[in-house]
Design brief:
There is one protein chain. By secondary structure, the chain is an alpha/beta fold. The protein has 2 domains: about 110 residues, STAS domain (Transcription Regulator spoIIAA, 2-Layer Sandwich), CATH 3.30.750.24; about 260 residues, 3-Layer(aba) Sandwich (Rossmann fold). Strands 7, 8, 9, 10, 11, 12, 13 and 14 form an 8-stranded mixed beta sheet that branches. Strands 1, 2, 3, 4, 5 and 6 form a 6-stranded mixed beta sheet that branches. Helix 8 links the parallel strand 10 and strand 11. It is globular, with a radius of gyration of 24 Å. The structure holds S-adenosylmethionine (SAM). The site of S-adenosylmethionine has 22 residues, from helix 4 and helix 5.
Length: about 400
């Protein structure tokens, strides 16, 4: 019987990391020999810690698992000084459960589910506190983006992926108004995805594929989508270039990647402009303290160019209290205040005096938004670029 070759294995000497990805389903130990040899050779080259990366391993049958664990056990016996770290992912939830007993049995083996704690703002974004923020934001940005998206290349009939989709409302709007042939929406927050599926069901929308995943390590084949969107998310990940690399990879040659990001310190309002400006300068610093760059918007061109894209198009637009019902704008600011001056400021250890002044700027912007002669604004940068053919 032939070996199931739907897996890939490689060794990176610099990281001392052996990566197995794909589906590993041999029928006999014999079929495991090439992989076992590669693993043995790689182990022989390593001192200190050896990383066995199974983050993107979608399937592993018992024949393969036994062969790997036997090999690891033997190495632990003969080289007790060597540490072996198995790097799993919650996206492949079974892998952590499968490898953990090995770590319990062998003192020099550890299992690290890498995406449990993989970017500094994760707890704020994934645990549901952001849901009211996202709901209000998309409502306000859609009136601008529905016109911008076709200008950036989105056409009916295209295959679309919305990566870091949050509560999925953008995917619903794209599906309803811009008629893609297929849309996949991926996020790493189970809470947001549950919410997204519920909202889609309430609207009777069944053709959006919501997927749990890590945007920096997607289990999606190369060159799949005509149009890939990633909104307000490069700015909250501490290594945006990793996500961009993946957006590039899953985009078809000739397809486009569309990103939106903010520059929070440029949020504004009148009257009470000074207080508002102070608060938003502090918002940018607060996010920076959690390694998030909410000033990324104007850097979009550079990020896209560095990631290898061409034909870069950058637009900016200002969401304002004049766009629709000013109360919608006010609700968004209130949702920001609740999280930024609540949980986030508390976690950073800010003083009550700071928090009071910080909150005041949000309240002043709400005042500006609702004032009959007031103006309040939130600037966004929407950029897209083509993957070379
Ligand atoms: C600011 S929200 C934006 C959500 C949505 N795009 C929107 O505009 O409403 C950022 C989203 O990115 C998700 N996220 C952050 N890092 C991620 C990663 N590595 N993989 C997948 N999703 C991620 C968070 O769970 C969150 O839903």
């Amino acid at each position: 019987m032939s070996i199931d070759r739907s897996y890939q294995a490689s060794f990176n000497e610099n990281n001392q990391e052996f990566v197995i990805a794909g589906k590993l389903r041999p029928q006999s130990e014999d079929e495991m020999r090439p992989l076992a040899e590669a693993l043995t050779n790689s182990l022989a080259q390593v001192r200190g810690t050896f990383y066995l990366n199974v983050k993107r391993l979608a399937r592993l049958n018992n024949v393969a698992f036994r062969a790997i664990t036997n090999l690891v056990s033997q190495v632990c016996d003969t080289r007790p000084e060597l540490k072996i770290e198995v790097v799993t992912s919650s996206v492949m939830g079974w892998s952590t459960r499968k490898f953990l007993p090995l770590a319990e049995r062998l003192p020099n083996v550890t299992v690290n589910e890498y995406d449990n704690d993989f970017y500094p703002g994760q707890s704020f974004l994934e645990e549901g506190g952001f849901i009211p923020i996202l709901r209000n934001q998309t409502k306000l940005t859609w009136r601008h983006e529905r016109h911008l998206l076709p200008r950036h290349g989105l056409k009916p009939g295209m295959t679309v992926a919305d990566i870091c989709c949050g509560i999925g409302d953008f995917a619903v709007l794209v599906q309803k108004e811009l008629k893609p042939s297929h849309i996949l929406a991926l996020d790493h927050s189970r809470t947001s995805l549950d919410y997204a599926r519920k909202v889609a069901a309430e609207f009777g929308i069944t053709d959006i594929e919501y997927v749990y995943g890590d945007a920096s390590e997607m289990v999606i084949e190369d060159n799949q989508f005509d149009f890939v969107t990633c909104r307000h998310s490069l700015q909250i990940f501490d290594r945006p270039e990793l996500i961009l690399k993946e957006l590039y990879r899953i985009c078809k040659p000739g397809g486009r990647v569309y990103i939106t990001n903010e520059k929070n310190s440029h949020c504004l309002g009148e009257p009470r402009g000074e207080s508002i400006q102070w608060t938003y300068t502090e918002v940018a610093k607060l996010f920076a303290d959690f390694k998030m760059d909410v000033e990324l918007g104007p850097k979009s061109r550079r990020y896209l160019a560095d990631a290898g894209f061409e034909d870069i198009l950058v637009d900016s637009f200002m969401v304002t209290n004049g766009d629709g019902d000013p109360q919608d704008f006010a609700n968004m600011i209130q949702a920001w205040e609740n999280v930024f001056a609540g949980e986030m400021a508390r976690d950073r250890g800010d003083s009550p005096e700071f928090i009071a002044r910080f909150r005041q700027g949000f309240q002043d912007q709400i005042y500006a938004a609702l004032h009959p002669k007031g103006y309040a604004g939130w600037p966004i940068w929407a950029a897209s670029a083509r993957k070379p053919t």
